[in-house]
Specification:
By secondary structure, the protein is mostly beta strands. It folds into 2 domains: about 180 residues, Immunoglobulins (Immunoglobulin-like, Sandwich), CATH 2.60.40.10; about 160 residues, no CATH class. The chain has 4 helices and 24 strands. The strands form 6 sheets. Strands 2, 4, 6, 8, 10 and 11 form a 6-stranded antiparallel beta sheet that branches.
Length: about 350
């Protein structure tokens, strides 16, 4: 006997309307699990919500690079609804062992293992505001498994032994409208020479305040045509830059030494995220090359309007921090007269070649 689901629905396919169990055929390519490749979507609700709900907008997943995954669901309850969405990465040898694939739980750039979604209206399509991240290092055939847990349907993970065959697995997914499955389309191309991470952490700053930041990547001794990029999936939570994500798309460098970054960003105290940065080298590799990802706090407004005398005393001109490429002529330093921008380097991560 079939019933109509009355909670947040994750579809098995585009023809899934929430009738349970799902009998529409394929169950391994949920359009509501959305691989977005190596770029963060600035407005996921607009890009993946009601406007594109009737389409599969997933992109290939790129081998050996940081990838971002979104999940959406449709509210089939009689009123407002909310839930926690979890996402797992499962290689084919673990399909029948939930206790093992559940250990491959994907997290966000802010290191959360679930994302809260809220639907204020009936039939509203809600999208995870922050993506899950994953860097695939194996070309083994794998899938993504999404699970939504709500107060009315906690939806615990199955136990080993509940699913003993692929037919039983198919039946389990078909009988759970709050779970989705998507085979991963893995593409092996443009593998970076290096991938590294920087933790941007403002929890040490005064609570309840906002600060200007300069975030970027400097380089030295690269062959022109080499490609650099960085990204984080965590939107800035408040202030004038609310919803903005820190990212710079893959960009070929046109000179051996230089620096690029975001515009100046207003970031609240307490914000913490992991930024992935990549370097795809173009031969020949030069001796002594280096990369430096940096975050500089600029006490231009916050310090001037507070009693933070310590910040004013510690700040030195950004071009004196020794960041390759950031000199007085750099466009990022034109915020103040003569490029004399005071700053405190909150941190950096460097890669140095031989």
């Amino acid at each position: 006997m079939s019933t109509k689901w009355n909670d947040i629905l994750i579809r098995k396919a585009l023809n899934d309307t929430g009738v349970t169990p799902y009998t529409g055929g394929t169950w391994t390519n949920s359009p509501d699990i959305i691989p977005n490749g190596t770029l963060v979507e600035p407005n996921p609700q607009q890009a993946f919500g009601a406007k594109t709900y009737n389409a599969d907008v997933g992109k290939p997943t790129i081998f050996m690079q940081q990838n971002y995954f979104y999940v959406r669901g449709k509210n089939l309850s009689s009123g407002a609804d909310a839930g926690k969405i979890y996402l797992y990465y499962c290689p084919q040898n673990l399909f029948l062992f939930p206790s093992l694939w559940s250990q491959n739980q994907l997290k966000t750039s802010s290191h959360q293992d679930y994302v809260q979604v809220v639907a204020n209206d009936v039939n509203e399509v809600t999208v995870t505001p922050e993506p899950f991240t994953f860097l695939p290092t194996s070309e083994t055939h794998s899938c993504l498994i999404a699970r939504v847990s709500t107060p009315n349907h906690p939806n615990p993970l199955p136990q080993d032994g509940e699913i003993g065959t692929m037919a039983q697995l198919a039946n389990y997914i078909a009988s759970h409208p709050n779970m989705g499955w998507r085979n991963v389309a893995l593409v092996n191309k443009g593998i970076p020479s290096y991938t590294n991470y920087f933790t941007l952490d403002t929890t040490c700053l005064k609570p309840g305040t906002e600060y200007l930041f300069l975030v970027g990547l400097s380089y030295k001794g690269l062959t022109p045509g080499s490609i650099l990029a960085f990204s984080s999936g965590t939107p800035i939570p408040s202030g004038p830059d609310k919803g903005v994500v820190i990212q710079h798309p893959p960009t070929p460098v046109d000179q051996a030494d230089g620096s690029f970054g975001t515009r100046y960003l207003t970031i609240p105290a307490g914000f913490k995220t992991s930024v992935s940065f990549t370097y795809t080298a173009k031969p020949p590799i030069q001796q002594g090359w280096s990369l430096q990802f940096f975050a500089v706090y600029l006490p231009l407004q916050a310090a001037a309007n507070s009693d933070d005398q310590t910040a004013r005393d510690l700040a030195i001109p950004v071009h004196e921090h020794g960041i390759p490429g950031l000199d007085l002529n750099h466009p990022l330093l034109r915020l103040a007269p003569n490029g004399i921008v005071p700053g405190i380097k909150l941190g950096d991560v460097s890669l140095i070649g031989q």
